[in-house]
Write a structure and sequence with these properties.
Blueprint: E1 5-7, E2 13-15, H1 16-20, H2 29-46, E3 52-58, H3 59-64, H4 70-78, H5 91-97, E4 101-107, E5 115-122, E6 127-136, E7 139-145, E8 148-152, E9 157-164, H6 169-179, E10 184-191, E11 197-204, H7 210-217, E12 224-228
Parallel strand pairs: 3-4
Antiparallel strand pairs: 1-2, 3-5, 5-6, 6-7, 7-8, 9-11, 9-12, 10-11
Length: 233
């Protein structure tokens, strides 16, 4: 079979299938598959089954979310469904059956991209919030996590580590990853408005084994450590 490829702005070799989109339940790779993938990231950031999802849609998402099934797709992702899951079309009913309270709203505020959504998940113990954008072909970018500015591509396995800002933490995490022969693809650190709490985002090449994640969780520095598995297109 002959393959057709191009090189993205990030220097990644991509095939024509990356452009056309993933195997999915339709109708739209950006409004449906991308929405599922944003929901899946939100669920992983939250870390467990939520009781409530507050979903705010912007731009094109806000204009067409019912007609394009974006509402069902987002909820499907929050429940852990993949883009080709036939249950996507029934996601709202399934969420209701499972006791997941969903609230949708729209906003005309300016934002990162025409296909932008803010998802806040909560239960009686915790809450978390992400802002994600769907950029086509099922691909997404996560632009905020719990008010921290980030740029998570979803194409790598990713660590999110929050901690009181201090020297030496980045080196310690890098040391553990190196000892497990895990190569860092990208790393960034954001700080809150007080410059007291930091969020480290580490995207890695290849797998992110539980052993490495558990070693980092055992370190005394972190408030939270979460592993976000890459999006399979």
């Amino acid at each position: 079979m002959i393959g057709v490829f191009y090189v993205s702005e990030r220097g990644m070799k991509m095939s024509v299938f990356d452009i056309l989109g993933p195997v999915m339940v339709g109708p739209s790779s950006s409004h449906t598959a991308g929405a599922v993938n944003i929901g899946r990231v939100a669920r992983q950031v939250f870390g467990e089954k939520p009781d409530k999802a507050e979903i705010t849609l912007y731009g094109s998402f806000a204009d067409t979310y019912k007609g394009h099934g974006t509402d069902r797709a987002l909820v499907a992702g929050i429940m852990g469904f993949k883009t080709d899951d036939p249950r996507i079309k029934d996601a709202l009913a399934i969420a209701d059956e499972e006791g997941l309270l969903i609230h949708f709203s729209t906003s005309k505020e300016g934002t990162y991209h025409p296909n932008t959504v803010r998802i806040k998940l909560s239960n009686k113990f915790q809450s978390s919030e992400i802002v994600g954008v769907s950029i086509g072909g099922g691909r997404v970018r996560i632009r905020e996590v719990d008010k921290f500015k980030v740029d998570i591509s979803g194409i790598y396995n990713t660590l999110l580590c929050s901690y009181p800002d201090q020297m030496g933490v980045i080196a310690k995490v890098s040391e553990i990853l190196a000892s497990e022969k895990i190569n860092i693809a990208t790393m960034s650190v954001s700080r809150d408005k007080t410059y007291q709490i930091a969020l480290m985002v580490v995207e890695v090449d290849g797998e992110l084994p539980d052993q490495a994640v558990n070693q980092i969780k055992a370190m005394p520095y972190f408030d939270t450590v979460k592993a976000i598995r890459k999006i399979e297109l």
